[in-house]
Structure formats: C-alpha cells, structure tokens
Amino acid sequence: MSHTLGIRQAQKQKTRQALLDAALELLEEQSLSSLGLREVTRAVGVAPTAFYRHFRSTEDLGVALVEEALGSLHPMIGDTVSAAGDSAGRIERAVDLIAHHVESHPAHVRFIARERHGGVQRVRRAIREQLERFAEEVKVELAKHPESKGWSDDDLLMLAGLYVDQMLMTASLCLEALEASEEERERVTRVATRQMRLIAIGRRNWLG
Amino acid sequence: MSHTLGIRQAQKQKTRQALLDAALELLEEQSLSSLGLREVTRAVGVAPTAFYRHFRSTEDLGVALVEEALGSLHPMIGDTVSAAGDSAGRIERAVDLIAHHVESHPAHVRFIARERHGGVQRVRRAIREQLERFAEEVKVELAKHPESKGWSDDDLLMLAGLYVDQMLMTASLCLEALEASEEERERVTRVATRQMRLIAIGRRNWLG
DNA sequence: CCATGCAGTTAACAACTGTTCTCTGTAATT
DNA sequence: AATTACAGAGAACAGTTGTTAACTGCATGG
C-alpha cells in the first residue's frame, strides 16, 4: 500500500502541514472567523495563491484542523476513561493525564475549546460530530465497568456525555492556568479532581 | 438622583444601545475578533466615526456586551439554583427555566458561550470574572440548603462551579437545538435533566 | 527523452478595513 | 441671548483583504 509517496506529493503535504501549523499558531490570539488566508500564507512564507492548492477557504482549513486536533485528543480520552474507574487514585491519574495533554498540545486544546462554540457553523458541526463519536466510545468503555450493572444504554450515554464535557472543561481551565503560578495550577487540578469524584459518586448511587 | 437625563445624553445612550444591539445580532454568525467597527455602524445607519464617541474599539464593545448579556443571565441563575433543591420536580423546573431563558435571550446566551473561550483576552477575562461572582452567589445559595450540612466552604464552591458550568453547557445545547425538531429539543432537555440529577445524587452522597 | 500535470509565483483588481482631521448643527450652560 | 460642548457627518489616508489570470519550473508517466 504505502508506496513511498513521490517527492512531488511529499512536498505538497509538507506545505499543507506548514499551513495547518501556522494557522494553529495564529489562532492562539484570535478565532477562526477572523483568520485571513493571506495571514496564514505570509506566516508560512509562501504566495497567497498557493493556499488554494490545499484548501478552498479558511473555513475548510478549520475543518481539517478539527481532524488533527481531535485526533491528538482521541487517545487521551480513551486513556482517561479507562483510568477513571472510580477510586480516588484513578481519578487523580485521569486529571493528571488531562493536564499533561494540555501541556504537550496546548494549541490543539485551545482550538477545540474555542471553535466548539465559535462563529463558523461547519467547524462547530465537525467538532460536535467528533465529540459525539467520542461519547459513544466512552459509553462502550463505561459499559465494561462493573459499576454499570443494570444501567440502560441511554443513561450510559448521558454519563459519557457528562464525562466528555467535563474533560474539555477541565482541559480548558488547565490551559488558562498554564502561565499562572504553580499553586494556581494545582488549585485548578484539585477542584477538577473533586468535581469528577462527585460525578463518580453520583454514578455509584444512580440506581435505587 | 435620577434627574430626567437631558435630551442630549438620552440620544447618546440610544445610539449606544443601537450599536450594542446591532453588534449582538452580527455576532450570531461570527466571533468578536472578526467583528469590524464599520460593519456595526453600517448596520445601525450611522457614520463609522460615530463609533468612537461610544467605544474605543470593538474589543471595548465586547466588554460592554459581557455586562449586558450576563446581566440578563443573572436572575436566571439565581432562580435556577433556588429551584434546583434536589427532588426530581425541582430539577425539571430548573432545566425548563434555562430552556425558557434561551428562547427569550438567544443572542445573549450565544455571545457568552462563544466568547467565553473566544479570541479576545479582555472579553474572556471579563466573562470569567463575572462567572466567578456567579459561582460565589450560587455557593451562598447552596449553603442555605439542608443538604449542605457539614460541607466545607471549598467544597461548596467546587459544587457551585460545577453547577454554573453545567448550566452554561445546557444553555448552549438548548441554543443549538432551538431550530431543530420538537423531539430533538425534548431529548436535549431530558438528557440535561438526568445529568443534573446525577450531580444532585453525587452531592447527597458526597460526605461519608 | 519528451510531453504533460501541477505546486507554487507574480501581478493586478476592486472592495474593504481602522483611523485622522475638519466640519456642522444643536442641546446645554452662562 | 450669546457661548460653549459635543454627538455625529463627511472625506480622505494608507493598508489590508479574497480572488482571478497568466506564468514558470520541475517531477512524473508514457
């Protein structure tokens, strides 16, 4: 299958990735709806018209960024849930996993948090669809736990959605606290930990 | 005190409000960081330079919009919490209150949800500060409930934050479902209701 | 080895942006 | 009644934007 991808298409994907990277960086201080095509090409060091060889518009660029950003988030969510069984230690580990992911992929987290409710409809929908798929996966993972005995499929999906939202919320708070003091960052993670613990307690006592 | 506000300043506040209203409407399909000053004045039917008589920049306009939008949200949150004691009926009432508020002030809800993580730092901070004040008020309200016996101040604030976030989350989901089918909207409110119920159960079993 | 395809360039366009300066009419003050 | 303050208009500015067209050079497939 993977025929070594001729030198031609390799270069194309290289500049395409450069455009994505530059856009992601520019989006740290603005939102997608104000991101200009020329702005991106200028940052890469390529002619404005070259943009069209890769994307029809910045909107399309945004949709592509959703794939990339949530692609990096995907394994994190899986790990988090399989780690977040119930006991105190597991939840702490899960929150640490989130905090660590924020440190290694801050731009991705920022992009998703920002554009989830952002001004570009197609991007909003792309994020929503991906998050729904995530919730579905989380549901499947949750179903394996012994605490899920007797739960309806609907309730499991409800809980999964709550977890996904809470993860993003926590990630966004960690992001804002990234450049704050050490104690502030620890305060954020401690609050997030207790919130997830409270949800876990609600889960344990849901039935009956 | 309230001396009937001369005809001069009355007109000024009138066009100021017109600018705010026009901006809020334009922001339904974009984010603040792409909102142009000329765009707003054009929508109002006033010269571009008139904008400077009221705001230094669109960023300032955004900060003013935070006051307005969260001003309308404020009583809603108070009602919701005092309604959301614990029992099933109360929670249903609270979610209905949120849904109703979204129907009557959709642009306000959209603005807050969008710019909370948006591309303009000052606006983000303004929203965060206001939401922290809300959480503080919710904490005070929660402390009055009998279920809060034995809770630490810190834990109450943690719970209050969880409630505030969940309210905004629910409001945003209601907003996206506003133009969807009747059954879709009911599905959203039913999921939100059960999520809040699960949190309430977690609250009841937090200690011990 | 030559012809084709195509990533990226250059130049130009009309439209738009934020900002400054100057001016006008009129409500408020004296 | 005369003067001042000031909300808004008008025109002009230098920059920027997205998009089109015609181009160049080079990797690729016959």
UniProtKB/TrEMBL annotation, chains A, B:
<feature type="DNA-binding region" description="H-T-H motif">
    <location>
        <begin position="36"/>
        <end position="55"/>
    </location>
</feature>
<protein>
    <submittedName>
        <fullName>Transcriptional regulator</fullName>
    </submittedName>
</protein>
<feature type="domain" description="HTH tetR-type">
    <location>
        <begin position="13"/>
        <end position="73"/>
    </location>
</feature>
<dbReference type="InterPro" id="IPR001647">
    <property type="entry name" value="HTH_TetR"/>
</dbReference>
<dbReference type="GO" id="GO:0003677">
    <property type="term" value="F:DNA binding"/>
</dbReference>
<dbReference type="InterPro" id="IPR009057">
    <property type="entry name" value="Homeodomain-like_sf"/>
</dbReference>
<keyword id="KW-0238">DNA-binding</keyword>
<dbReference type="Pfam" id="PF00440">
    <property type="entry name" value="TetR_N"/>
</dbReference>
<dbReference type="InterPro" id="IPR050692">
    <property type="entry name" value="HTH_transcr_repressor_FabR"/>
</dbReference>
